[in-house]
Batch of 4 targets.
Target 1
Amino acid sequence: MASAPGTPPGDAPVPPLLIACALGIERLALRAGGRGGAPGPVTVLRTGMGPKNTERALARALGDGTEGREAGPGAAPAAGVIASGFCAGLAPGMHPGDVVVAEETRGPWGITPCTATDVLTAALTRAVPGRTVHTGPLTASDHVVRGQERAELAATGAIAVDMESAATLHSALRAGVRPVAAVRVVVDAPEHELVRIGTVRGGISAFRVLRAVLPAFYEWHRSLLLPRR
């Protein structure tokens, strides 16, 4: 019998998908998206804020560094990992509710390229029509970025900044070879900083967008199961 579209041939297990976020409000939004359409098991993991909490949470979730390195018959497939949640936009013209698809994450550990960003970008454009989807480097910070520091990070070519994505992807790959991605929703931007009036409205907008991204994540996950050409 032929395999269903988007599933591995034969009886190969479908790799799980792990979606990592820092905050309870982010987890609430992501879990509200439902599980319909997911090709395999999905876990939404709340890591806590900051890179150290993120590293600890990913190590617990993914194991001791051996997962994903075995490729023999019967080996369990490695989980795909997506870092998600809110971020600060760096590029002029960004607005709360815009979506950022990282082409790479940048942090103290170096640069981590992301997997199948073209698939994610197209899927998110369909999932959140009317919202702008930006692609480019996502950089790390260990604190909230404002004012001149935001401009300095933008000058490096980064389009957005957050505290956990780079640590998530670094930790995921340290635990084994696997597909990784980072998708963030802008909650503040150069012309819409958190300290300004309208923050609540911008936060609500970002929450609604984050709640709608799950179908795109599942489409990315499903695309990884297709034969490579």
Target 2
Amino acid sequence: MKAESAAQARLLDLQGLDTELQRLGHKAKTLPEAAEAAELKKRLDRLESELIAAQTRVGDAERRQRKAEADVDQVRARADRNTKRMESGQITSAKDLQSLQSEIASLGRRQAELEEAVLEAMEHTEEAAAELARLKAEREEVLSGHTAAVARRDTAAAEIQWDRERVTRDRERVAQEIPEGLLAFYEKLRDQYDGVAVAPLRYGRCEGCKLALSTVELNEVRAAAEDEVVRCENCRRIMVRTAESGLAAKAEQ
């Protein structure tokens, strides 16, 4: 392929812009702010689930406590009625009186057991409520952190997008200065070689694969016409000759 040396040199500028676009694309995909925001979002979702479970535990504990308190009230009310009956003097039968006294004593024991259950239920309710409060506080803290991380992520992404748009405009301008055939060949090689289609020949070394050319290869490049598009024998990328290529010395006879 033939192309003026100036057009070949322009390929280096185009490659630099394409490499910068690749770098910006990678940077956009690997923003630490995005990773931080994603991790905080996971924590936030996990906390939301834990909060629902904690709210359920609080509700269950409160229902158990109300049930235990209602049982105590019921036993206490029955014991009070029996005490009033016994103290009213209406029961004259010794057997009935003894039975009533026995029931009052039994109700007293039952009331003590139920009051113990109430205390236990209250402790469970307090523990569940404390855990719920802790989770709510943690959620607020994580939510605040997530909001801040999202703002940082969006700012960083916007800056990258601005850079990409600027570089894209520069690329379009440079691409217009390159002959269509050479540009098409460049694009084809970019697809084949991980986005790097062209590299300078610097001090006898291809900057695409970082390998030094042999004496024979250097002599072949030196002998090629200025408008000849040369390629590296190792990586097959286009090699652009520059003032730093190391071709000034004549081949030994």
Target 3
Amino acid sequence: MPDRTGSPDRTAAPDSTASPRRSDATRTAILHAARERFAADGYERATIRAIARDARIDPSMVMRYYGSKEGLFAAAVAVDLKLPDLGAVPRHEVGEALVTHFLDLWESNEVLTALLRVGVTNQAGAERVQDIFRDQLLPVARAVCPDPEQVATRAALSASQLLGLALARYVLRLAPAAALHRREIVAWLAPTVQRYLTAPNP
């Protein structure tokens, strides 16, 4: 409001959105640095100090936001696959639907790539991948598997194709895998995933 001279008040409070923006940017920087560091060093060797240095912040800020290395790791590899309801997909299209969904995820979410890199380098990362498999992929496979006793096996076989592709294309960046067009990947992989999930016993 104007002061007694009629001039605008220059002591008004700063934009209240500035602090939340800085907070979000700091969290993003911490999580990005943590994923890179966990993937490179493994859970045991990665340190809060190294992660803070990579994020160019004080280590106390990491502890302020995440409390501990365990809390930071859980946040860094928190993943919701948002898998489609295959029970609502025509049965002959479930392989294509799942492969297409995972391609969308891998290409839009660096967390998944980081999780895969961490999962192949240390036990904590592997256990997180196992949790995601159990909690998110098994229910999807259960909706279409013809034999309830084979749900876990069929889901694991499907995961071997999807994770194998991701490892070759997005982590190792093997040239032939990286060069494949999405349509080619779906054409190659979808029938195999389809067979794993819905075909009669081999």
Target 4
Amino acid sequence: MHKTLRRGTVRGGIVLGIAAAAAIVGAVPAFAHVTAQPGTAAKGGYTVINFRVPNESDTAGTVKIEVILPTDHPITSARTTPMPGWTATVTEAPLAKPVQRGGGTITEAVSTVTWSAQPGTRIGPGQFVDFPLSVGPLPTDTDTLVLPTTQTYDDGRVVAWNQTADAGGAEPEHPAPTVRLTVATADEDQATPVAAGTGTDTTARWLGGAGLVVGVLGLGLGGAAVLRGRSRGGDS
């Protein structure tokens, strides 16, 4: 009877560890989406947004990225940085409805920014690349900057990251990169762009979640080993 009880306890410890690991995996954010880093910026200021582009295909490479900037909340300045193997193009377009800002009238703004791979360059399977873009001034009349992005592969496949989630709803299959805009504080210098690479790192969070999974599994298996040792000692 004691043996049966101990074996049941061992199995219970293993099952509990696996269940906890599964729960943690479910809580880990998706990694393969195109995202905007950092996820927040101050209204009215300048910032550097990194468009993090992971390659989802196992057989094809990413050769083009196109980001659409909003015309209802226009941005007048967008600057790229040189990236070996990539050609960046910033396109401006007239606004259908001029916008009053800072005592002046804005009649055109940046509409798209495109990065095109040069021959021999691509984001290969299992890789990702950050595309930095310095933008500003950021709009003050919205709390969210939605930046639909199109990802083109060298096999002709095109993925549009342009979906938005309803408030409180589940994340869509192809969410658009988004930056949450906050009211600037006295400590924030709106005239100076934020350094690239700041903010939440999705990759780091994913790896952290994976580490927790390993830890929980180790705890469950370790507990099972202790119980088995006690069982053997009691039987001798």
